[in-house]
Amino acid sequence: MTPLVYLHGFASAPSSEKARCYGPRLAALGFDVRIPDLNQPDFSGLTLSRNLRHTERALGDGPGVLVGSSLGGYTAALFAHLHPERVRALVLMAPALNMVSLLHRRYGTEAIESWRQRGSVPVEHPYLPGPATLSYAFLEDAQRWARLRPRPRCPTLVLHGRHDAEVPIEGSRRLAAELPHIELVTFEAGHALTEVLEPVWERIAAFLAPFASPPAERERH
User: I need a labelling partner for 125 at 20 to 30 A (CA). Which of 15, 79, 138, 221 fits?
Assistant: First the structure.
């Protein structure tokens, strides 16, 4: 069956609302769904580079489909740019394409400097049992990747809330304007898109149906 890797967002998990909602539906559509835990082996060591390694391992030999949310969307776009032969289609939900500027916007100059000096910063993580911290290596790694603007070549669907206060929609609009094979669909929603789960699913299902394994192949599995 066609492999499909779902990449959750920052301070999220495979048990997130969207992953739980869409994972079984994507499997029923005809995909071999794989949802790696990007918090592993520890959240404090999270980096984009580590996310890309998780993606590569989860996808296997490919080619397959990537579905990513927020930071997972940025990871998916980067992976598709780096390995175009391994990605048949992309679905990006509120992709955090400008991670470095988003971090500066979130924390501010003084807090960023404090983060650098201390080496880590506290992070609210609802999917971890205790207090979480994030190493400054996350920002350093993101700065290195910021030099590369992802330009996926495969068919790509971008879904973004018009009222997203965490990842402004302008990055998605710019990507769609630059690449004609990218379809951008916007919603009256915020960052998580959880208030429009069904309309988002309808778009995803229609877009990915041509890439799913046919019924005969599903029966063999």
Answer: 79
